[in-house]
Amino acid sequence: MGKSKTKSRKNSSANVSAKASSASVSVASSGDAIYSLDAKMNPLKAIPFGLQHILAMFVANITPIIIVAGACGLDPANSAMIIQAAMIIAGIGTLIQLFPLWRIGSKLPIVMGISFTFVSIACVIGGQYGYGAIMGAVLVGGLIEGVLGLFAKYWIKIVAPIVSATVVTAIGFSLLSVGANSFAGGQGSPTYGSAKNWILGVVTLLCCLLFNIFAKGFLKQLSVLFGLVVGYILALFMGVVDFSAFKDISIITLPHLIPFKMEFHADAIIAFTLIFLVSATETIGDTSALASSGLGRDVTEKETSGSIACDGFVSSLSSVFGCLPITSFSQNVGLVAMTKVVNRYAIASGAIIMILAGFFPAIGAFLATLPDAVLGGCTIMMFGTIVVSGLQMISKCGFTQRNIVIAALSLSIGLGFTQCPDMFNIFPSMVKTVFAENCVAVVFITSIILNLVLPKNMEADKK
């Protein structure tokens, strides 16, 4: 009887202890939700983190459209319609990455957007055949990339860890000039490099750094948003915010299905398919960098496969609404690397904001008023973080003689040759279009070849 009571008290005590422990774990997990991939978050707390991602990529998301639309001679109404579709499709693509459909999507905090990788070839094809030919090529090329993504397990092994690490490093280096140009006011801006842009960029950057240093807890990870807000307010006082986007704006608009008649030309499809393969390599690098820097682990084969498939199939969907290809955004990989915020629900709130921005033009118009210099002040550090993540990945692969040769030669050829694009003048125009100014593509091809041809036992003792 006494033993039974004692045992009962012990069980009761154990239950109380277990409940207390469970409660403390619940509180801890609640406080660390933003650093957990699958933890549920209060929507109101998630929105600032999602908004931070959208502000970081908004201008870059619409810039390729503006460039290609201009090259194709589209009128402002058609350009606005494509931008509207871009926001909606980017939001849908991001949600699919976060919450996969079947095997399409990675279940990682990847933000999708219009890819700069296709701008050059789109301008060439658009100038030759018109915008409809671009849409036809995107539809076919996207389907090919999507299928390749689904069967990635049969070919992904040739992309060794040292190859992925080198490509990630190249992506970071390729974005540094993007951040610098934004810092100066945006490439082609009449005020490029002006004192006002320098002031906005420096103040924004300092605000990001100071907030990151002095803020406490999870608020520390909102440093980019804080910098953007302070920079935007300063830009308002300096009178450099352009509100012309609000002129004659509609309250709500709906996307158009197949707004341009698709045309299918063999050379255009082949050219776009080649660029889709290049884009797939960037996606592999982005996915690897995100898993490494955000989750502290190697990316899985399933995640890489789903990520590539999402890029391809969502790009095909994008063409149906008259929009350019959608891919993972390296800018946002840099933001994850810097803040370590990986919560899928937090990123999803940003995706929903993008979709709303597509249906309610006023939201998109407001986000579009963000000055380039303010954006540059935030992104310059984010892009540097990608470079560091790539170097960390190289370090994890080990500094063997073989790995050093692959990384060093790939980066020197990729970064060096593409800074002198006239070197490619002896090659056919298609080769020049794909590789002349695309360091990521050159680094990938070089590292793949080196990984295949270099002996595995370069460290063996000489006899």
The main sheet orders its strands as 1-2
Provide the helix percentage: 55-70%
SSE order, as H and E?
HHHEHHHHHHHEHHHHHHH
Low-confidence stretches: 1-31
State the distance separating the first and last CA atoms. Answer: 80 Å
What's the total helix number?
Answer: 17
Query: Whole-number radius of gyration?
Result: 24 Å
Strand content: under 5%
Number of strands: 2
Structural class, from secondary structure content?
A: mainly alpha
Number of domains: 1
| 3D shape | globular
Write the layout of secondary structure elements.
Layout (H helix, E strand, L loop, with lengths): L1 H30 L11 H29 L4 H23 L13 E3 L4 H11 L1 H20 L10 H23 L11 H20 L8 H16 L27 H30 L5 H20 L5 E3 L1 H10 L4 H16 L1 H8 L3 H26 L3 H17 L11 H7 L3 H15 L10
Name the descriptors.
single chain, 463 residues, mainly alpha, two-stranded antiparallel ribbon, 17 helices
3D structure, described in words:
The chain is mainly alpha-helical and 463 residues long. The chain has one domain (36-453). The protein has helices at 2-31, 43-71, 76-98, 119-129, 131-150, 161-183, 195-214, 223-238, 266-295, 301-320, 330-339, 344-359, 361-368, 372-397, 401-417, 429-435, 439-453, and strands at 112-114, 326-328. A two-stranded antiparallel ribbon has the order 1-2. Helix 3 (76-98) runs antiparallel to helix 10 (301-320) and helix 15 packs antiparallel against helix 17 (439-453). The N and C termini lie far apart (80 Å). The model is unreliable at 1-31 (pLDDT under 50).
